Amino acid sequence: MGTNGSTMLEPLRQGLPPVDPTAVSGSASCALPARFEAVRGARTFTRSTLSQWGLDDRFDDVALVVSELVTNALRHALPEDSRRPAGEAEPPVRLHLMRWSTRLVCAVRDPSEDRPGGAFSPERTEENFDLESGRGLFLVDSYSDSWGWHPLAGRLTGKVVWALFLLQD
């Protein structure tokens, strides 16, 4: 039996302002391949999901944050010395979008248990990824209303980094 998204995201709900899980008006998730081109796919998925939810006007801010979170997650899902086997059942990175009446949450799961920020060290600048200088965390903090992270519980390894956007009624 696979792990469903609601179990995985239970700690996420605990880390957010109180919400009624039954009041979720929309939820969507997609697995992302362990390749940096997946950032484009995450943006496309975000655009179509927000459009379905009537939130096109929030796309720019949300997509920027999604791009930063996914880029960081992929850094942990792409080990330097070995690529994950092509036939691996569970993709290492997942993007979740959840909508309540007054808030939107973007959550990205990755296989690393390091706190966000450990990935933002400036040592490896030759690849010039957005998050190298710490700019990524600054952008997430600037464009979302709040953000945080938690390690995954149970048999799952890794963490979820989330960003919250408040919506107008």
Notes on the protein architecture:
The chain is α+β, with helices and mostly antiparallel strands and 169 residues long. It is 31% helix and 21% strand. The chain is built from five helices and five strands; from the N terminus they run ααβααββαββ. It has a five-stranded antiparallel beta sheet with strand order 1-2-3-5-4. α3 packs antiparallel against α4 (59-77) and α4 (59-77) packs antiparallel against α5 (135-143). It is globular, with a radius of gyration of 15 Å. The model is unreliable at 1-8 and 118-133 (pLDDT under 50).
Classification by helices and strands: alpha+beta
Distance between the termini: 38 Å
Radius of gyration: 15 Å
The coarse overall form would be globular
Share of helix among residues? 25-40%
With helices defined by DSSP (H or I, 4 residues minimum), what is the helix count?
5
Q: What fraction of the residues are assigned to beta strands by DSSP?
A: 15-25%
Mind summarizing the main beta sheet?
A: 5 strands, antiparallel
Low-confidence stretches: 1-8, 118-133
Order of helices and strands: HHEHHEEHEE
